[in-house]
Amino acid sequence: MVGLKVKPKDLLLQTHHNYLQIIFALIAILAFCLSFYNIYHVFNRPNDECSWEDSQNVVKIITVQKGGASDKAGMIPGDILLKIAGENATSSSRAQAVLDNQKVGTTVTYFVLRETRFLELNIEIVPFGLPTFNLIMTFIGFIFGLVGFWIVWIRSAA
User: Fold this and answer.
1) Fewer beta carbons below 10 Å: N end or C end of the chain?
2) Domain ranges of the chain
3) For residue 61, which of 50, 70, 72 has the smallest C-alpha distance?
C-alpha cells in the first residue's frame, strides 16, 4: 500500500485556508446581525419629519417633509427652533437628543420663532421610515451578500 505524502507546506496552507473560511463566515454573520439591528433601530426611532441645522448660534429648520407631521402642524423652512417638549434647543444635536427621548405616537410641543412671532406647534411624533426604494436595495444587498458568501464558502471547500 502506497501512502500519500503530505508536504508540511500544503498542510499549513490548508489549515490557514480553513481558518480564513471560519473568519470570513464569522465576519459575514456579524455584518448581517448589525445590519438587521440597524434596520430595527432606524424603524423604531422617533421622527418629526423635518430637518434642522445649527446656523449662527440657533437651530434653523431647513426642510419640512410635505404632508409630514411638522408640515401638518404648520412648520416651514426658515423657522427657528427654540424648544422641544419644554427643553431648550441650544444646538441641533441637543434638539435631536430631546426628540429621541420622545415616544412615537405622542404629541410634542415645539416652540419656534417665525420672523418676529413666537409660535407653539403641536407635532405628533411618527416612526422613522425608509423609502420603499431603500428597503428594496437593502434586501437586494443582503441577497448579493449571501450569494457571495456562499460562493466563497463553496470555492474554499474545493
Assistant:
1) N
2) 8-44+130-157, 47-127
3) 50
d(CA 119, CA 124): 16
Separation CA 89–CA 95 (nearest Å): 5
Kindly report the length of the chain. Answer: 158
Helix (H, G, I), strand (E, B) or coil at 22: helix
The pLDDT tens digits for 105-131 are 899 999 999 999 999 999 998 887 665
pTM, rounded to two decimals: 0.58
Classified by CATH at the fold level, domain 47-127 comes out as Pdz3 Domain (2.30.42)
Residue 70 CB neighbours (<10 A): 25
Contact 109, 89 (CB under 8 A): no
List of residues 6+ apart from 70 with CB closer than 8 A:
48, 49, 50, 61, 64, 110, 121, 123
